[in-house]
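Exercise: predict the fold of this chain.
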Amino acid sequence: MGERNKTARAARKLAMRRKAQRRHSHFYERCAHWSFGCHGEAEPIRWHRERWVLAGTALLITAVSGFLIPAWASAMRPDSVSTAHAVLPLALPKATPEMARAPDVEDWHIVQVQPGQTLSDLFQSQGLSLTDVQHVVDQSGDAKALHHISPGQEFDFLLDSDGSLKGIRFDKDEANRTTMRFDGDKATVTAQAREVDRREHVAHGTIDSSLFAAASKAGMTNQMVLKLADLFKYDIDFVQDLREGDSFTVIYDDVYRDGAYLREGDIVAAEFVNQGQRYTAYRFKKEDGSYGWFSEDGRPIQKSFLRIPVDFTRISSQFSAARMHPVLGLMRAHKGVDYAAPTGTPIHAAGDGVIKYKGWMNGYGNFVIVQHNGSISTAYGHMSKFANEKVGQHVSQGQVIGYVGMTGLATGPHLHYEFRVNNVQRDPQTVTLPKPEPLPAAQLARFKTQVVQPQLARLTTLDTNIKMARASGNTRTDD
């Protein structure tokens, strides 16, 4: 079967070839002899001549192509523009010794103040003498910046090859830096202003376990929490008065110098809700240039009296008309509040006043009485030791007047604190303290328009947004 198919295909090809030859017989008759193969007999000379003609034609085509293609490519290439270069003489400045010498790089030694260090300690750490200290202080023009140094503060020293002082740099204040250079006994003092700016932050928290936990969750540092508690310490006992659900909203700032973080700033405005009672504080620059914090009605946050004049661990005895005395074993009135605290804890004056009594008092041990005005005085008992104030000397609110102890009739270290009105003891925790006087009328008007109104609007907006967010969250939870 396969042989038959092959034979049929061969017959068809042969028939097609004969048909083509018949159709183009005139072409084959004229050009059939143009071939590289040998079909039939031909004269040897004619056959070779035709082969040479075909080869010559192929070479001619190749040569012509090799010439025309590069010429065409060159014709299509854009003309290059030649650039003319001119050489001009350049007069160079004459080299001087100052130009040949590389600039000096000064080796300043940066020293950071450590806790407990004094200015003389810093100088001695650089191999300098007390004479150098005195020379710098004398030339500074403002010895306050050098006398009151604090941990973390930086001093830069520039020393000569023999170890003598060539220069010193230090911060005169936050916004100004002082540089002093010495050439023998001659001193050159220059001041450099530094850019200081404040950047505000907002925090809100709700107390569920402690103030520190809620503030930390809101992004506040422990130092800023202490500033918040210090603002409202006159109205809120942060040991006993805090309740779950109390809330706060704070606008505060950080201080940046030359674009870098320097320190924590101050509270600009704050609101604290304690047991349903709302307290506010606003920072305001007074006529004398100092800053203070005031409530919405323009009264100073700092009250005339501290409610608690010591940092205590617990209240060991409340004010009462009758209690069992822990030492005497008798029922008698306890006309003050006992605040238990470690021995040596500082005791502060509850308000401005004059030392009326300082000495030993039976039962009270080391005892101090401060007279604040014609009717109000405060008393402090069981001190381990007194501060340096003398009888008749004026003291300011918060000033240390002694230290916690257990002198007299006491079973443990604590402060016995009394608040007296016309020499009659009152409960320090519940007595109505006199309100401080508000700002003068002109300052009060400026305070309300420039501070209270804009900051109150911000606090109100924050509270509204927080409540809406909580309501939206509660709705999603219920769904």
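Check your answer against the key: The domain at 314-426 is CATH 2.70.70.10 (Glucose Permease (Domain IIA)).
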